Amino acid sequence: MSLGIYDAFIFDRSYTMEELTKKIDILRKDVKKTIDIQLHKYVLEKFLYCYFLRENLSTDEILEIAKKETDYDRKMWLQDTAQGQWKSLYRNIVLYIRGKVRLEILLVSLILMTKNIYLFFDIMVRKSSQMMKIFTSK
């Protein structure tokens, strides 16, 4: 999925941490705007789906759908919809999205950390095997 951000940085020299931080801040602002727009669209889409569901179905029909729903969050959305609790529905959708985003960030962080650990051990194994060759060759 493209975020529509096509600016690139050319690293043509050694940069200080301050210079790199400034460059990354520019990128971070662009990405944040795009992500915020996508998150707002998702929240609006889910909210309007529930609103139009309420417009077209009775309370009992919505509650019947909620009984069959296995996902806890969606069940709560349907119950809020059946009762016309629009503020609660909006809040629950936003909290759901925030939870999903935090979970994704956590998973990406864990994956990167795991890769770094493997890289570290790979380097250590190579270094130790090189050291063994030096010691055994004498």
Q: Spans of 5+ residues with little confidence (pLDDT < 50)?
A: none
Major β-sheet profile: none
Please identify the oligomeric state. Answer: single chain
How many strand segments? Answer: 0
Secondary-structure element pattern, one letter each: HHHH
* Residue share in β-strands: under 5%
Helix content: over 70%
Work out the helix count.
Answer: 4
In short:
With 138 residues, this protein is mainly alpha-helical. The protein is 83% helix and 0% strand.
Write up this protein.
The chain is mostly helical and 138 residues long. Helix content is 83%, strand content 0%. The protein contains four helices and no strands. α1 packs antiparallel against α4 and α3 packs antiparallel against α4 (86-137). The radius of gyration is 25 Å and the shape is elongated. The termini are far apart. The mean pLDDT is 80.
Question: What is the topological layout?
Answer:
Layout: H1 17-56, H2 59-68, H3 72-83, H4 86-137
Helix pairs in contact: 1-3, 1-4, 2-3, 3-4
Structural features:
138 residues; 4 helices; elongated; 83% helix; mainly alpha; 0% strand
